[in-house]
Amino acid sequence: MEAVGPESCRGIAVSGAEGRPALVERVHFRVTRFIMEAGVKLGMHSIPIATACTIYHKFFCEINLDAYDPYLVAMSAIYLAGKVEEQHLRTRDIINVSNRYFNPSSEPLELDSRFWELRDSIVQCELLVLRVLRFQVSFQHPHKYLLHYLVSLKNWLNRYSWQRTPISVTAWALLRDSYHGGLCLRFRAQHLAVAVLYLALQVYGVEVPAEAEAEKPWWQVFSDDLTKPIIDNIVSDLIQIYSMDTEIP
Q1: Where are the transmembrane segments (predicted)?
Q2: 166 falls within a domain
Q3: Between residues 55 and 107, which one has the greater pLDDT?
Q4: Helical H segments across the chain, by residue range
């Protein structure tokens, strides 16, 4: 599925903006951090977690943040992502992990009226999310592209440069962290994969051999329609995400 254009994501504010847009962005950051941490505790793989974050962001492209509890939407997104990516999760496990996330010293919830109300809320919210997204909950993620690009880049670089710098680990970490914001909706999967790889190389000062003599930049070999301004926009958005991370407790 193609990325959603910026004009479709009014609910996702520009990071660093003043006033309410910045507050909305901070809420989305906190909630997607919850999705990622809960996903890890639930044993979810990287693709289902990415799908859950994308579902969450896309939902709030369509719906005002004040309309629904974002954490309930997040729990439903986790549940739905498990179905979409065929890593099915029990609602009871999602509820218990979420409860422990907010109340670290608490015991698993009893199967009482409160539990069943919460379970029903998750199921009903899942149906709402599906309707709002018009049942379009299958996404093309950058992960497979990044994997191929890393293999190609490893063959281009000399062995010493590859072994002495954690380019691969850093690129994967950057890609994971990009889901704290709406980059997955604003940019194509291939472009995101190249951009995080570009930034990882920049971080460690690694240059691709013979780039100066090449007919086109290495990143354009991976994606013909990619331009330097697009890379710069992605990198800028990533840096803003990390800036937000230092501001949010």
Answers
A1: none
A2: yes
A3: 55
A4: 20-41, 46-62, 70-84, 91-102, 113-132, 143-156, 159-164, 167-178, 183-186, 189-204, 218-222, 228-247
